[in-house]
Structure prediction request, 321 residues.
Amino acid sequence: MKELSIKEIENIKIGSAENKEAGTGCTVVLCEKGMAAGLDVRGGGPASRESELLKPMATAQAIHAVLLSGGSAFGLDAAGGVMQYLEERNIGFDVGITKVPLVCESCLFDLSVGSCRIRPDKAMGYAACEGAQKQNYRDGNYGAGTGATVGKMRGRDFCMKAGIGSYALQIGDLKVGALAAVNAAGDIYDWKTGKKAAGLLNADKKTLADTEEAVFRSYEVVENKFVKNTTIGAVITNARFDKTRLCKIAGMAHDGYARAVRPVHTSSDGDSIYALSVGMIEADLDMVGTLAAQVMAEAILRAVWSAESAYGIPAARDLFP
Prediction:
């Protein structure tokens, strides 16, 4: 296997835009010729747009963009900028009188990090598309990862900074990569060693506590949990699959979440994964799904390693250099 940049996967462009002061941003994956896509949502509190398009029974067989965004449900406005950008270039589903760009989006909650009044909007979605033309994507505190944090069971004072991460592998002609904007309620682990990488801090704010142990201390029912988390991501491959099979690959990629995030898929997360097919390589479904879980777990880890301390929230690179 050969490691490569996710930007080396053909037929896509990835770009980001953010407001650093406000602590929010968005990251777009563009495929102007259209890409088959599937989706698997496992968290209890998703904020999403056009998810119904990706169900096997829906007519559309391809979409033109996936947007990962901060801003919680407010951030869904950013997809309008992606649609405008594509419409101006005559890209979309031909309905006879015009072309309608098909844009799917998932959002994470970052409103408590910077300014809750500034969120990804139409202008920021458009700017992310302009960034995609320059392939300006970067791991860390950029795009959808700008305001991302992890280990939030005890609130902001004991959480850690995370961001967005990527990882890709090539085997022969096959390429499989992953993007992950990591904003989990739980802790983050190195999937290869089992060692904790980031998450809930102890009272000294220098060492790591254990979110699962904290959860296990009480089984008291908690009503009206505040949904403020969510890890959102995408698996991208140059293998050829239809959206039914891509939904299966997205489901298998969630094993990468389970390897790297604990606890995961809770009622206060909106954990979602898109699977995108942007090429014509013939490859086995189960092999690609298994590889998707691996690259997703590594992308999550890199989102933590590449994050920088910000907004008074420490990052792993500063606490554990």
